[in-house]
Specification:
This is Endospore germination permease. This protein has 364 residues and is mostly helical. The protein has 14 helices and no strands.
Length: 364
Amino acid sequence: MKVNSKLSTYEIFALTNIAIVMIITDTTPSLLAQNTKNAFWFVPLISFLVVLPSFLILLYLLRKYNAEHLVELLEILFGKFLGKVFAFIVFMANFLWLALDKRSYVGQIKLLYFEQSQLFSIFIILAIVCIFGAVRGIKVIGYTAKLFFPYFQISLIILIILIIPSLIPERIFPIFGSGLTEVIQEGVLKGSIFSKFTLLLMVLPAVKEPKYFYKGTLLGLMISVIQIIFFYFIYTTFFDYDSIATTPFPFHEVTQYIRLGDFFTNIETFFLIFWLLATFIRFILFLYLISWLFGAIFQINNFELLILPIGFLLMLVGLLPNNAIVTEVVYRNNLFNLLTPIIIIIPFILLIRHFFKQRTGRLS
């Protein structure tokens, strides 16, 4: 499966950041705060440390075997059949996560900005935008992300500057919230909040040189983690002890609180524009990558033809849960907990298989 257009380090960095850092704007902070209270800002750091070894193993093995992407690496180490089985598990996990994540964002749009609109209508619009963007190809997606990235970051910096006077640092106490054990446990279970990184491993054939991919993804991942922790800290010091777990959309609550005198009202619209654009780019990228993943598993060279059916199938699955609270508290929470061991275990199995091939003298 060849991709003619090639991405630069900066484009890979921008795509990685937008793909991962957007969990500062969804319901993930509230989900994490259910058990950890005001100490939820520690959770992303623990989660990152838990999954980082697995990510580094995947990057190391990709480079070692000169594999084009994740599916090829799995097939090299496990053989064609088992490799495809593991790849299909990765596909299904990401497919379910993406469907529920889309439902979460559509719920945000409806509840906060278009209350009179039907959920189905908003989902249709999002699906059409994602399909139209994804069929343009990875180069267009990367180029769009590169152009948009600076403005997105500037909007976040402006938000930080405007909200700083309203922060109360004392709200981080008690420092471990409901208890250190609870925080560590939640951090370990929610390692999958960074699971999008596995999908990004499909992008390797689309870069000019492999070193650009490794630099871009690692730098993007590190910067994203820092930003996530920092924003979660802002949420902790902005909301009081009891309200953080009951605030479904902390990012939007913060933007609606900001005022610039009597003349500049509804300033949250400014941040809404950048949030919507980042959301579109993120889901366009994921739709393209998950279609590529499916195509690689079943050896479909023209995987772009899969974008349309997979895009609408994601919408149909996302519409199945009829209760937003159940979707967030039950389905997304359980999916996070289920995905974490998959993300952690599979890379270590690959590493063991790699060492076995070395010892038996069958290293490719």
